[in-house]
Amino acid sequence: MKVVVCVKQIPDPADPGALDPESKTLVRDAKLILDESDSYGVEMALQLVDAAGEGEVHLVSMAPNNETAGLRTALAMGAASATLISDEALKGSDALGTAKVLAAAIARQEPDLVLAATESSDGYTGTVPEQVAALMDLPSVTFAKSVAVDGGAAKVQRQTEAGYDEVECPLPAMVSVTAGVVEPRYPSFKGIMAAKSKPVDELDLGGLGIDAGSVGWAGAGQEIVSIAEAPAREAGEVIEDEGDAYERIVSFLDDLKVL
Amino acid sequence: MGIDKIWIFGEANGDAVASITLEMLAAARELADTIEVFMAGDGDDYAEELGEHGAETVYSTGDLDGGLQGAAVAAAVANAIAEGDVDAPDAFLLGTTQDGRDVAARLSVKLDTGVITNCVALEADGDELIGSEPVFGGVTDVRTKNTSGKPGIFLIRPKSFEADGVGGAEADTEDLDVPELGAVGAAKVTNSHVEESDGPKLDEAAIVVSGGRGLGEADAFSLVDELASAVGGAAGASRAIVDAGWVPYSMQVGQTGKVVKPTVYIAAGISGATQHLVGMKGSKNIIAINKDPEAPIFAVADLGIVGDVHKVMPALIEALKSR
Ligand SMILES: Cc1cc2nc3c(=O)[nH]c(=O)nc-3n(C[C@H](O)[C@H](O)[C@H](O)COP(=O)(O)OP(=O)(O)OC[C@H]3O[C@@H](n4cnc5c(N)ncnc54)[C@H](O)[C@@H]3O)c2cc1C
Ligand SMILES: Nc1ncnc2c1ncn2[C@@H]1O[C@H](COP(=O)(O)O)[C@@H](O)[C@H]1O
């Protein structure tokens, strides 16, 4: 079974950079890391291949400047190989542009199953996986909190507002997973060493056969018209509990007449 | 100039139209002359309520036989537009919900136009819409305009607008035919599970009590349940304890969970990460209990208690119960 996992490489959330009001792009200088949201997809893929008894996990990532630091983390967890797409013309890509690039790269792998995270930590549009599925004419199940593969079909528990649905979907398919679906493993020292020599196929738009006009700023079809500070919520009173703070809460609720 | 027609993706909870749909209707009434709803299922069941909130027409696909909504609804809309059965709207509004996101994403590929996501406000600029998205946990607003020359697709966060009936007449109903989907329509729901507890619904309750990792262990969540029932409210949770399996996802408050705007929100043992804040910052009053005086939750709290949840909560529950 071949599983492709979409992995986004993002600036460390502890140091998120800032939006430049002039160029309206995110200014990020630091090295990129593997989006934690995608570590669940990587772990899920490794477990599914394990359970199937055969197959391999391939990673696909689109990132600026041929960045591989986040990919190496996922390779160290156990993925076999990766495709990295980098191109100056991809700057400013929206979710659809990103999805076009990812779909083209994934299609070359002819996977049985494609995994992604329900939403990324920095972009959180939550639309990329479903757009990739649509571009590849694949069925899809989003918001998976559990995934099993059985007889050529994925069995997924899909989160809903009220609980969850059991969904069955024939392969090939796209499944987007939520955090908590599995516990991601820490790369072992051996894994980290092995990751250094695993193959990463680096491509640009030409290599994928994608027209630069359909992606990046050119293809986005949307324009940021302003970036401004939002009105802040004022902090109120903060008190130390001396054993009677509960009384303060009760009188606060009484004043609001909500009890 | 101006926006003539907006289409809203309709969702339902059983017999009732979902709140997010009514909220978007209220927003659209301020922006466009004609508002129409498109949805899965049988539009006749909801035509009265949707009409009351200002929808003129409801287009619906009928029963999808267990099929997920994303592929089916998007294909039906794209097909109806391509066949000339309907006039394309100037913009589509969908809720940031599981199915809303799926439909928006599939539709964006069908129409080859991007999605403007996470909007909490909308405004008209000539005949285009601008959506505002809070980023960095709400400290910055980014306004994005559709410039594609095609109908814009906007994903709207729940609780961004106030639902409000205007006494409109029952909406007309029209069929939205789902074309042959082939493989993309193959995902089927075989069973549904409801995990919601009794009492008021999390996103409707006047008081919400949420617990986080600071409770220490799964069993301590009973403190949250007891306090919620003592004040007649609903219990919620941070993602940390949903991921840890202490409570089901349906209780999660935040960016990937529910958005709540109660009269009072009580956060117990929750640090106040940006992704949690976006789900509850709109609450009218916020009370936080946290043992760390530096916890970011205190920056948004009207009343902050620096203390141990295991001391403050039992005393509070006791005091409320004995009244
Ligand atoms: C893409 C993405 C989406 C996310 N979506 C969500 C979301 O929808 N909702 C959400 O909640 N999070 C979400 N998160 C996770 C979020 O970043 C935080 O990790 C999470 O909210 C932390 O939960 P917590 O506050 O319970 O735990 P912690 O951050 O661990 O905080 C526990 C707090 O409890 C306090 N504490 C400890 N012991 C006690 C005690 N005895 N008494 C009182 N206080 C005590 C500590 O001081 C601390 O402040 C998301 C993250 C990502 C990357
Ligand atoms: N540039 C990218 N490279 C690889 N995968 C991506 C990229 N952008 C988004 N994805 C995938 O799509 C998921 C959802 O992203 P988003 O729609 O931006 O919230 C991510 O968690 C990844 O799995």
Distinct ligand kinds: flavin-adenine dinucleotide, adenosine monophosphate
Low-confidence stretches of chain A: none
Helix-and-strand structural type of chain B: alpha/beta
- Helical element count of chain A? 8
Alpha-beta classification of chain A? alpha/beta
**DSSP E strands of chain A, number:** 15
Number of helices of chain B: 8
- Overall pLDDT score of chain B: 95
Counting structural domains of chain B, the number is: 2
Q: Spans of chain B with pLDDT under 50 lasting ≥5 residues?
A: none
Describe the structure.
The complex is a heterodimer of chains A (259) and B (323). In chain A, 29% of the residues lie in helices and 31% in strands. Chain A has helices at 36-52, 69-77, 95-107, 128-135, 189-195, 205-208, 216-220, 245-256; strands at residues 2-6, 9-11, 18-20, 25-27, 32-34, 56-62, 81-85, 113-117, 140-150, 153-159, 163-170, 173-177, 200-203, 222-229, 237-240. Chain A has a nine-stranded mixed beta sheet, with helices on both faces. Chain A has a two-stranded antiparallel ribbon with strand order 2-5. A two-stranded antiparallel sheet of chain A has the order 3-4. In chain A, helix 3 (95-107) packs across helix 4 (128-135). Chain A starts with a strand and ends with a helix. Chain B is of the alpha/beta class and 323 residues long. Chain B has two domains: 3-186, Rossmann fold (3-Layer(aba) Sandwich), CATH 3.40.50; 207-321, Rossmann fold (3-Layer(aba) Sandwich), CATH 3.40.50.1220. Chain B has eight helices and 18 strands. Chain B is elongated and about 65 Å long. The interface between A and B is large, with 77 and 99 residues. Flavin-adenine dinucleotide sits between chains B (212-214, 238-241, 252-257, 269-271, 273, 275-276, 279, 289-292, 295, 308-310) and A (36-37, 119, 121, 124). Flavin-adenine dinucleotide (FAD) sits between chains B (212-214, 238-241, 252-257, 269-271, 273, 275-276, 279, 289-292, 295, 308-310) and A (36-37, 119, 121, 124).
